[in-house]
Design a protein that fits this description.
Number of helices: 4
Number of strands: 0
Largest sheet: none
Helix content: over 70%
Strand content: under 5%
Length: 130
């Protein structure tokens, strides 16, 4: 079996980790007898996964040309994620005047999983540039 290239490994691992995370998240909510598909949880996993995939793919594509700016571009990607949060999730979460822990978890868990993996792979990518 041929070895997968670096971005493909990232995308495959991102997909697997987000699917596992989603399954565990739903399992915990179900075991606690809480609503499992509320709080835009599906949208959150999809948006965080897509944004992580797009941001990392762009970082990888421009790694040689913009290698001295990769850190700034990475931070710009994080800014983009916050923008999407405030446009797509925050209005719904704050519509009742309060953001609950379930709403926070629905967004933050997939965000944290994607951010961890992005950071790890971006770090490895930068090491390989040296």
């Amino acid at each position: 079996m041929p070895k997968l290239n670096f971005p493909t490994r990232f995308l495959a691992l991102l997909s697997v980790l987000l699917l596992i995370s989603f399954g565990l998240h739903i399992l915990v909510l179900s075991n606690m007898e809480l609503p499992i598909l509320d709080n835009l949880i599906i949208r959150s996993y999809i948006v965080n996964g897509l944004l992580a995939a797009i941001i990392f793919t762009l970082l990888y594509k421009f790694r040689q040309k913009l290698k001295n700016q990769i850190g700034f571009l990475f931070m710009g990607g994080s800014l983009l994620k916050f923008l999407f949060f405030f446009l797509l999730f925050y209005p719904t979460y704050k519509s009742d005047g309060d953001m609950s822990g379930l709403e926070f978890g629905a967004f933050f868990i997939p965000y944290a999983v994607a951010l961890f993996l992005e950071t790890f792979f971006t770090s490895r990518m930068l090491k390989n540039l040296e």
